[in-house]
C-alpha cells in the first residue's frame, strides 16, 4: 500500500503524557512517623495481650507515644502560643492520661489513629502540589519562533511575546495561546475544554498552549503572554483555591476548645477550692484525679474517628478512595451537585451509533461501514478508530486500502477494491452541493449535537455515519439518586458545545446546562453555587475540571479517565470508574455522621453519669476507670459497624432507592 500525506512531515508518533515526580509516601515526614508508630504498636500488642512481662512491651508502647505523638504534641504546643488549645494537644494529653492510669494500650491506640489520619492528609497535600507542578509540563518548554525574515529559531516559551509567530509541527504541543495564521490541522484540546474529539483548526481559529497538534502544520500568532495562558491560569486558580478554601474541621474539633478548657478548669477547681476551705489533701486529690479520668475526652475523641475511618476503609474496598476523615464527614453535608460531561457522565470516547446509507447508493449498512473502515484504518484520528472498532464489533472483513491520503480538518481518502472512497466532514466533502439530501441530513443531525461523517464513493455521496460519546449506563440512575439525596437536580458544567450538552442533559434528566465553559468559567459557576449557600459536590475527570474541584465544598474525580491534576486535586477518587458509587458514597457519609452522633451521645451519657456520681457521691477510682474504658470500647465498636459489606449495601439502597 502506498501512503501519502498532504504535508511533508511524517505522521506524528504517539505523544506521551507529561510526567512528573510524585511524592512517595516515605518522603512525607508525617507518614514516616505514623508508619513507625504503627509498626511499634503491632509489635507490642501481642506481647501485652498474651501477658508477657511489662519490660517486653512497655518500651515499645513508650516508643509509640514518642514517634506518633511528638509531632501533633509539638503542633499543639505551638498553638498554645496563639492562645489556642487544639485537638492535637488534647489527643496527646488524653493518651498520656490513659497511660497514667495504667491504660497504656488505649493511649497508644489513640496515638496511632490520630498519627495515621494526619499522615494521610499530609500525603494528599503533597500529591496535590506534585500534580500542580506537573500541569506546567503540559506547556512545552520550547517553541519554534519565525522571524520577520522567515528564519526559524528555537526559543523558550517563557520568552515569547504577544505578536510573535510560532511554527507547530505535527504531533507537537502548542507553545502559546494564540490564533492560527496559516495551515490546517486538528488539535486535541481536551485538557482545556474537555471536548472528546480533536477540533479542526484553520486560519483565524484560536488555539491554547499545551494542547496537542495533529497531522497538519500550523503557524500561530501568539495572543497572550506566557504567564496568562489558560494553562497558567488553571495552575493559579488551583493554588489559590487550595490556599483560600477554609479548613474544615471534624465535628468534635468544633467543640473541643470549650470542652478542653472546661475540663482543665474544673479539675483544678475540684482540687484547689476544697483545699481553700480546709479540706484534706489526699481525698481532695483523689476526687480531682477521678474527675479528670472520667471526664477525659478519650471516648469523645474516639466517637468521631472510628466511624469515619471505617467508612473510608469500606469505600476503599468498593473502589472509592477518600483522602481523609474530614472529607468523609464533608460528603454528608452536600446539598448541590455539579457534574462534568465528557469522561464523567460519558465514557469519553466516540462510538458509531448509526449507519445511514443513502437510498440510491446501492449499499447496505454493512457495506457502507466496511468501505469507511477500510479507508479509515491507517488513520490515528479518534473518529477513525471508532469507525474501525465498529466494523470489528460487527465481525466485518476490512479490505486493504491503497493510495491513502489524509487532509487535516477534512478527512481521509483512498482506493478500496478499485473504488475511490472518501470519509470526512460533510461541510468539506459537500462543498458547493448544499442542496444534496446528504447535506440536509447531516445538518439536522449536527443540530442535535451529534458528530456526522460523510462517506463518498467515486465522488458520489453514499451515506453518513453518526458518532457520539456514549453515555455511561448508570448515568441517568446516578443523576436521579443525587437529585433525591440533595433535593435539587445536578447542574451540568461542560466545555463541550451547547447542542451536544443539551442532548446529553435531556438523556439523563438534567435541566440546568452550562456549556462552552473554560476552566475559569467552571470554577466561577461552582463559586456562584457556593455563594448561594449550597455545599456543592463537583464530579469531574479532566485538567479543565481541576479549578472547579479545588473550589468546591467537596470534589470527586473519576479514576480511570482522570488526569493527574484532577485525581490529586479532588477530595475523593472513584478508582473503578463506577459513576453509581458517587451517591452511595454520599449516603455512606451520612450514615457515618449518624454513627458519630450516636457515639457522642453514648460518650456524653457515660461522662455525665460518672462526673455527677463523682461530684455528688463517692465514685471509687477503679469503677471510674472501668466506666471510662467501657465507654471508650463501646463507641469504638459501634464505629466499626461501618466496616461490613452490608453497610455499603444499605448505603447503596438508601441512595438508589
Task: Tell me what the structure shows.
The protein is an alpha+beta fold and 657 residues long. Helices cover 52% and strands 17% of the residues. The chain has 23 helices and 23 strands. The chain has a seven-stranded mixed beta sheet with strand order 1-14-15-16-17-18-13, sandwiched between helices. A seven-stranded mixed beta sheet has the order 11-23-22-21-12-19-20, sandwiched between helices. α8 runs antiparallel to α21.
Report the mean per-residue pLDDT as an integer: 80
Radius of gyration: 32 Å
- In total, the number of strands is 23
Shape: elongated
Structural class: alpha+beta
Order of strands in the sheet with the most strands? 1-14-15-16-17-18-13
Low-confidence stretches: 1-20, 244-249
Helix content: 40-55%
Figure out the total of helices. Answer: 23
The proportion of residues in beta strands is 15-25%
Describe the largest sheet.
Answer: 7 strands, mixed
What's the end-to-end separation, in Å? 58 Å
Task: Briefly summarize what is shown.
This protein has 657 residues and is of the alpha+beta class.
Tags for this model:
52% helix, alpha+beta, seven-stranded mixed sheet, single chain, 657 residues, 23 helices
Helix-strand layout with pairing:
Elements: E1 3-5, H1 29-49, H2 54-81, H3 87-100, H4 104-135, E2 142-146, E3 152-156, E4 165-168, E5 178-182, E6 185-188, H5 190-193, E7 199-201, E8 206-207, E9 212-213, E10 218-222, H6 230-244, H7 251-276, H8 281-294, H9 298-317, E11 320-322, H10 325-331, E12 336-339, H11 341-345, E13 346-357, H12 365-376, H13 382-393, E14 402-407, E15 411-416, E16 419-424, H14 426-429, H15 437-447, E17 451-457, E18 460-471, H16 475-486, E19 491-493, H17 498-508, E20 512-514, H18 519-531, E21 536-540, H19 546-551, E22 554-558, H20 564-569, E23 572-574, H21 581-616, H22 621-639, H23 645-656
Parallel strand pairs: 1-14, 12-19, 12-21, 19-20, 21-22, 22-23
Antiparallel strand pairs: 2-3, 2-4, 4-10, 5-8, 5-10, 6-7, 6-9, 11-23, 13-18, 14-15, 15-16, 16-17, 17-18
